[in-house]
Amino acid sequence: LCCGTNAESPPLQCVLTGKWTNDLGSSMTIGAVNGKGEFTGSYHTAVTATTNEPTVSPLQGSQHRTNQKGQPTFGFTVNWNFSDSITVFTGQCFVDKNGKEVLKTMWLLRSRVENMKDDWKATRVGTNVFVRLQPQK
């Protein structure tokens, strides 16, 4: 027989690989995480500060691989195909009380400016919450 009322259940694992969507309607796909914690994928933004039509852009990143708790920290860069800008995301993968995976992230978006005096307005900061995109039934 097992486990009294004080027994701890093993922590649920949060896995980055798969399809995700965020609070703004953007989506991304993260490929397999290799043994070094590295991964690649693609990002399709639903929002843009440019007049250009958003296209799917590549992402590459890494996950902290020594985390044994199953809720790893990670970071990735998106190199936007449709504008002269780049975004870095950093965050942590959590499993909520209902067993649902959630990526809590913060990002910095750097846009190209014409000269150094405009540098002050070239970087934006924000947060996004991603949840796993469930396949259509």
From TrEMBL:
Recorded GO CC terms: extracellular region
Keywords: Biotin, Disulfide bond, Glycoprotein, Secreted, Signal
Keyword Secreted: yes
Matches recorded under Pfam families: Avidin
Chief place of localization: secreted
Cellular localization per UniProt: Secreted
Disulfide bonds: C14-C93
Signal peptide feature range: none
MF terms in GO: biotin binding
Top-level taxon of the source organism: Eukaryota
Family: Belongs to the avidin/streptavidin family.
Function recorded in the entry: Forms a strong non-covalent specific complex with biotin.
Subunit comment: Homotetramer.
Name of the protein: Avidin
Source organism phylogeny: Eukaryota, Metazoa, Chordata, Craniata, Vertebrata
